[in-house]
Amino acid sequence: MYGTILLTGKMSSTSSNTDSKMNSLILELERIGAVKFGEFTLKSGLTSPVYFDLRILVSFPKLLEEVAALLLEKVTRRDCVLCGVPYTALPIATLMSVKADLGMVVRRKEAKSYGTKKMVEGVWTEGQNCVIVEDVVTTGGSVIETANLLRKLGLTVTECIVLLDREQGAVDNLTKAGISVITLISVSKVLEVLLGAGRISSSTVEAVNSFVLNNQTQGLGADTSSVIKTRFETRLDTMKNAEKKQESTESDLNLVSTRLMEIMLRKRTNLCVAVDLTSAQDILELVEKIGSSVAVVKLHADIVNDWTEQTEVELKKLADKFGFLLFEDRKLADIGNTVRLQALKFSSWAQLVTVHALPGPGVLQAVRDLQKSGPAGLGVLLVAEMSSAGNLISSSYTQETVNLGEKNKNVVVGFIAQSRVSQDNDLIQLTPGVHLSQDGDETDQRYVSPADAVLKRGADLIIVGRGITGAEDPAEEAERYKKAGWNAYLERTGQV
Ligand code: S5P
Questions:
Q1: Per-residue model confidence as pLDDT tens digits over 288-333
Q2: Which pTM does this prediction carry?
Q3: Do 255 and 172 sit in the same domain of this protein?
Q4: Residues having CB within 6 Å of any atom of ligand 1
């Protein structure tokens, strides 16, 4: 495994020397409290049995200098500038830069609101190499984010030097993003050294090992934008954690949105197709063609002439085969009791349903009750705005709808909206009225392009109906929309 240093066999004096330096560095880090064992809540919401706080290194200048020297040994090129990921790696990179007489660039976390508004300070030439320095990597997300920014500004980023790798997938993720990683210390090395020195027990080693194993982050669309990854992974981690603690039914999160995020990342798609056909056979044939391109298939079961239980069985089979969610666009808007009875009609096969907030919180309670008693996993999409010309939704109604959604995340997955109505990252926005070549239909529908829906209106998923179902080759068209939607999503989140 990457980063593990073998202690057996013959070693050259240099490697044994490096090894002993590394061992004493680990012991020192533990002594000053930069490595801690216990129960720690991470940024992601996960509870970790180990915590690395390298920020405190600045209070131990000799150790800081030692770290910088060891990291510098790993930088083989001299035709580069250095960039420390803010903030912890900044002083480390500074010392390295001074020691090796290498220039440095400094990345700002927030753009200045005055003056030059630069995100990166320093001087470099177009195409010049930049080696990134980071203290700890888990997913590698911050490094990728920094690399993307530097690359946009004309620097070439292919290497990253890391003090500590938590061994949870960062190396894989970074490699896939075109960045090779050299790490000084791995978690396994920390455990080995501290166990050997009697600083920790074997049960601590076991706890950390199993945490590392169970919280791997690679494979979740490593080449997607780190921002999407961070947002979704945080959610997925929190979810996993809640599940572990058997809190899922009582938690304030819902499984459907987690499932949806997982599907989007795995299939790299933010496409929901509205299959508004009136024959069950036509629906099944169409879904078979587009299944591999979509995250969600949206239906209006009540417009289908020959809908039967067999249709539901077949749809579920297709959903399992291709991995997508089924969405019944019923727009429930009645008193709780009626809504519960209505939802019972499709909760055996649908995972998503549209709801109008109009009747008040009882409408959500009805779906929540259903989750507890019946088949779990029906998530609500609240209709916050509509695409139709002259619709009667006012801005205050939209705001009230959003408030209701934000307070009920255990049942609300997100919103149907035409603009970014909520800043809550747990809630997902689906935007209908999307077409690549039309401005509207012959009645009241108004269309925007996939890029505009995502970039200008803030959609996480685009809902496309006749743009795909009416095409000569729906499979090919679905792929076209999928690419347009996902590329726009990467662009938007990359800019955040
Ligand atoms: O505001 C809305 C909300 C929805 S759910 N406007 C919409 O068009 N929809 C649905 O999205 C509508 O019921 C239809 O199923 C789909 C749009 O289909 P298209 O053929 O116009 O793309």
A1: 999 999 999 999 999 999 999 999 999 999 998 898 999 999 999 9
A2: 0.59
A3: no
A4: 274, 276, 329, 354, 386-388, 416, 432-433, 445, 463-467
